[in-house]
Amino acid sequence: LFQIAWALEGLPFSMCSHLPAAAGHSVSSRQHEPGGPFVGHTMVQHAPDGTPLFLHRTIDKHEDPFKLAWDLVAKNRKREEASSPALTVKRIFPDAKVKARIVASEAQLVEVVAFDNYVPRGAKLRAAHDSAAAELRAAVLA
After folding, report:
1. How many whole angstroms separate alpha carbon 83 and alpha carbon 114?
2. Are the C-beta atoms of 98 and 63 separated by less than 8 Å?
3. What is the pLDDT of residues 99-129, one digit of tens each?
4. Which of 64, 89, 125, 138 is the most exposed place for a label (fewest CB within 10 A)?
5. What percent of the chain has pLDDT over 70?
6. Among residues 40, 44, 55, which one has the least CA distance to residue 18?
7. Backbone phi and psi for residue 130, each to the nearest 5 degrees, phi listed first
8. 134, 106, 89: which is closest to 126 by C-alpha?
């Protein structure tokens, strides 16, 4: 839709050349899955220079909006021709409110790194969220 809006306005349109990554955590019960143990729930969008620009909590906000499970980031490995997407959305939790998560289609297609090493000021971001969440949780429970 954005491309159509830009075209209607006669403005140039381009997409960031850096594919989205996913923030999430490791789930030990998925260790032997083809995609590996990484389970994501937040899209990591990048600036044109490749640095993380913003995080889009697409899934985990429905489970517990006051808790972040941003321990790891799975990013696409550099490769010439991709026969399939490295990250995909798959229904892996049949008993959860939201059954789908972002997982690797194959573990070797992604590189999984620590969230705080990948996202600038990641630890400060999580600490600020935790502080605000504690305040909101206390207000809701009061």
Report:
1. 27
2. yes
3. 888 999 999 999 999 999 999 999 999 899 9
4. 138
5. 93
6. 44
7. -60, -40
8. 134
